[in-house]
Model the fold of this input.
Amino acid sequence: MAPARSVAEDAPAAGAPAAGAAVAATRAGQSDTRNAVFLVLLALTAACCIGTVQMIAFHAPVESTMGVVQKIFYFHVPSAYAMYLGATVCFVGSAAYLYKGTAYWDAFAKAGAEVAVAMGVMVCISGPLWAAKAWGVYWTWDPRLTTSMLSLLVYVAYVVLRAFSGNGESERKFAAALGILGAANLPIIHYSVKKWGGNHPTVITGNGGGITPDMRTVLMMGFLTFTLLTVVFVWQRLRVELASRRLEDAEHEALAMGITEE
Amino acid sequence: MSQPQGGSPPPSSTTSPDGRATEFRPVSGGGQMQSGELLLVEAYAAMWLIAFALILFSWSRVRKVDDRLAALEGAMQKARAGGDKPASPRAE
Done:
């Protein structure tokens, strides 16, 4: 495995101000482009969020037995899917970090884990609120609920590990292993209902009546919105992480140059 | 519950204002009485709260880091341009 490299290793060397200025100008241009793309993506995501809420409220029909509370389904299921996306990002980043050893992939994995936690919390709040009405209890140790909770706890453990255990190479490797291990639980969540039964509905993946075309349209809109939200979140968290590491490198460099804070 | 003998049951004491003041009686299936609308709104509120909290937290963190980084890089460029003389940036 290659040794971990710094995010700022491409930074201009000291004593080459002209080259440094050129690199800085190029970097600033790239940054402007990235910011513009991010703002467009953010605007698109916001429009989709508003559109989805409107469709859930006015387009999706009210379910016959559960009533209006069934509408939680239109963002509960997409948020579970978004948790899978975040976990997949974490898996890809972790595997790439173990293979290449670059700080970028480590930051990518961390961003994915943070998004998986945020989405997992949404799932674990919206699901019990639906269950309170549909099942009469907030929580039951159903196979899918249990495996989903387990998965959320794995990513919470990842985030806590990264927050409190420093940023050394061994911590990064351990976190990468956890990121890969966490992804192993995803297929188990998906197939738990088929393998072990339980109360959890299987209207999308099961063989029952499924959902009506109206409901499907709104659900697809929910999936689109949560895909965009995941991209925005991962992008934003990755940016935070890379900027923090650049700052860390700059602080070390400044200290080496004898620059001190007042 | 035993039904009283002979004719219709007496009116419940809890239906009268005096009865409500002295007796609480549960109904079966209380869990079903939760408002679906309220649960839906709670779920929505939690979801958007988490989403906006994440966006705001990330945004404010990026701004802080970017500001500090800009100050630090400016000070380093100044130090490089000015030779070996150390500078003291006001990073915060």
Summary: The CA atoms of residues 62 and 91 of chain B lie 15 Å apart. Chain B touches chain A at residues 29, 31-32, 34, 36-37, 39-40, 42-44, 46-47, 50-51, 54-55, 58-59, 61-62, 65-66, 68-69, 72-73, 75-77, 79-81, 84, 86-92 (CB under 8 Å).
